[in-house]
Amino acid sequence: MPYLLNILYLLLLVAASPWLIYAAVRHGKYREGFREKFLGLVPRREGSESCVWLHAVSVGEVNLLGVLIKELRGRRPNQAIVVSSTTRTGLELARKKYPDVTTFYCPLDFSWSVRAALRRVRPSLLVLAELELWPNLIGAAVDAGVKVAVVNGRLSEKSFRGYARIRPVMRRLLNKLSLVAVQNDEYRARFAALGCDDARLVTTGSLKFDGATGDRRNPATRRLADLAGFSDQDVVFLAGSTQEGEEQVALDAYRSLASDFPQLRLVLVPRHAERFEEVAKLCERSGLPYIRGSSLGRTDNSPRILLVDAIGELGAWWGTAHIAFVGGSFGDRGGQNMLEPAAYGAAVSFGPNTWNFREIAGALVAAGGAVVLPEPNSLVSFVRRCLTDAEFADELGRRARELVAANLGATARTVDLLLPLVAEPTGDRSRRPSSDIRRAA
Question: Which of these ranges, 29-33, 68-72, 285-289, has the smallest mean pLDDT?
């Protein structure tokens, strides 16, 4: 089976090579990490203590790991921890967010690369965030005596329909896992329908609730607000995790309202780094004065429009927002995490396409903590109402904060389930997790 998968993966790589080459040349993707991805030459761990390998596919999942790392270290400060990611932006964020943890590209699912990586890291437990079911990686881990767990598991209706076509394969794969900790009972039922043994399935709630800080006075938010020159009189309208087309909608809304509401400030935070230049050109063509986040501190200007061109800062920027639009919801992405602005008590809005966050979006709307915008032109009317009806905006924020507070605790429940799967570490080397790893020569 591993060798058949190797052949299939190689054929897919050959078929996709024109697109991969274009993406590498045009956007700089896939250029780095060859040794780690294709050969499994990840950093070699030299310590003898037990190790938890946390894997997150990209930026959203990398952010999610923060609460797990904090809880694991709080419970077992001697536990070695390493983090891998699949994407360049995910790895860059992991390096920035967890500087004292060894990070690396996750090997591609070739049998030789995953086996090499497992030999070098020697984990006791492999933890996959949300849904990263790679057959060779999971199979090689289990063959090496490594337990494998999925945390914050989710399974959309679309993914479920696809996996259901290969249910016998999925049943065998899922039952190699020691734990599948899912966000809600709906996802649990889908995993069960694919053949996952009920004894492995647990509903823990979403780690995203625990990852939403809600403290507007946190140092990162205060620093960014000071850099941007935001005053107590300003009303910050932030459009975050936006995809193509949504920045223009936010710019149009700002243009319609700026003359009547001079206190309004617009912050744009595109979802992907490769779109920063595209959005900068969009701002230039709009004729509206703007500044890029990377230029803050180099000028005395207090920008009315700010384009954030850095990955990993959105969580802190949400803390500056009074009015929030969560992107990826007017297009085909299926939405983005709306819990961070909700936890801060912003007046939250998003478009109708939020199937990747259906339960969270539905809970917010049902609690009166968010508004679904039926089409892009409705954004301007939402922002206008927030500016003219303070009671409406405040009530949205209050109800959103209450919902987040009522759903805390998934991290503790998840770690309760993970710790029995990994042996107690020995010694104190892992108090400095990066010290027991050396880079491959």
Answer: 29-33
Within this chain, do residues 270 and 341 fall inside the same structural domain, yes or no?
yes
Tell whether 256 and 384 lie within a shared domain.
Answer: yes
CA 166 to chain centre: 28
In this structure, are 242 and 175 located in the same domain? no
Catalytic residue numbers read 61
Are 349 and 324 contacting, i.e. CB atoms less than 8 angstroms apart?
A: yes
Q: Determine the Cα–Cα distance for residues 160 and 166; give it in Å rounded to an integer.
A: 10
Q: Which residue's structure tokens are 């090496």?
A: 144
CA gap 254, 237 in Å, rounded: 9
Q: Nearest CA to 54 among 156, 140, 124, 143?
A: 124
Q: What DSSP designation does 420 have?
A: G
Would you give the DSSP letter of residue 433? G
3-state secondary structure of 109: coil
Helices (H), ranges, 198-259: 207-211, 219-228, 246-257
What is the reported pLDDT for 134? 93
Do residues 9 and 108 lie in contact, with contact meaning Cβ atoms separated by under 8 Å?
yes
CB 403 within 8 A of CB 194: no
Same domain, 134 and 163: yes
Angle at 150 between CA 403 and CA 13, to 5 degrees: 115
Is 18 a member of any domain? no
Please indicate, yes or no, whether residues 191 and 250 belong to a single structural domain of this protein.
no
Nearest Cα residue to 169 out of 143, 138, 198, 148: 138
DSSP state of 362: H
Q: Are residues 184 and 224 in the same domain?
A: no
Q: pLDDT for 414-441, tens place per residue? A: 999 999 999 776 654 333 333 333 333 3
Contact 182, 202 (CB under 8 A): yes
CA distance 55 to 128: 5
**Token pair listed for 401:** 């904060």
Quote the CA–CA distance of 375 and 202 in Å, as a whole number: 37
Please check whether residue 55 is in contact with residue 126, taking contact to mean a CB–CB distance below 8 angstroms: yes
299 found inside a domain = yes
Q: Are residues 327 and 372 in the same domain?
A: yes
Structure pTM?
0.81
Q: Rounded to an integer, what distance in angstroms lies between the CA atom of residue 317 and that of residue 340?
A: 10
Q: Which domain holds residue 146?
A: 34-206+409-423
313 and 393: one domain?
Answer: yes
- Counting the structural domains of the chain, the total is 2
Dist CA 209 CA 197 (whole Å) = 27
Q: Which has the closest alpha carbon to 348: 329, 331, 333, 334?
A: 329
Residue 327 inside a domain? The answer is yes
